[in-house]
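Most newcomers find our protein records easier to grasp once they have seen one. A learned vocabulary of local backbone shapes supplies the integers on the structure line. An example says more than a description, so a record of this kind follows:
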Amino acid sequence: MVRIHPVFLRFACLGWGLLLVSLLRVSPVNAGLAAGDRLEGFSLEESGGGEFHYPADAAGKVVFLNFWASWCPECKAELPELEKIWEKYKGRPFVLLAVNVDRKRKAADKFLNKMKKKVKLDMIILYDNDQKVINAAQPVGIPASYLIGPTGTVEKVYFSFKEGYIEMYERDIEALVERTEGEAAPARAGQVKGTP
């Protein structure tokens, strides 16, 4: 029987551990869509019927794109709060897209019907049952949200949902919506005066 000296065993474990850490640092994890990236176009079915076509249906608007699932407890807490944000920014250059990623539409509908008995949900709810859009975004978890500027560039990325996130969302949305409105005002003024 071969006996390994305890000191040798400790150094061997330490060596393997350092090797693994260095490999992880050399091989970056692909976290998917990040700030500065552009979101690809997509078309998804809306819960009320019809389809939403991005970017055409969001032209000139700030987009808050949220991925959620019926099995996600954080999503259950977040959706009613997102509805409040949607209501607050209606009429401004803003659209909130709540994209369900359940593979079975029936699970999402059951979840939504149950939730609608408790809270009003008028925001745009989309279905990504074949998971093409979420696979393109590749978030590290659910819920995941992306704040996207009117040009299609991702400005902010949010993962999970915790206390204080709604305030952070509203602060970031407000800043981007104000900037968007400010950029649109000179263009409208020029049109009124008849300049090209």
User: Anything to note?
Assistant: The first strand starts at residue 42 and ends at 46. The chain is about 45% helix and 20% strand. The beta strands are 42-46, 51-54, 62-68, 94-100, 124-127, 144-148, 154-159.
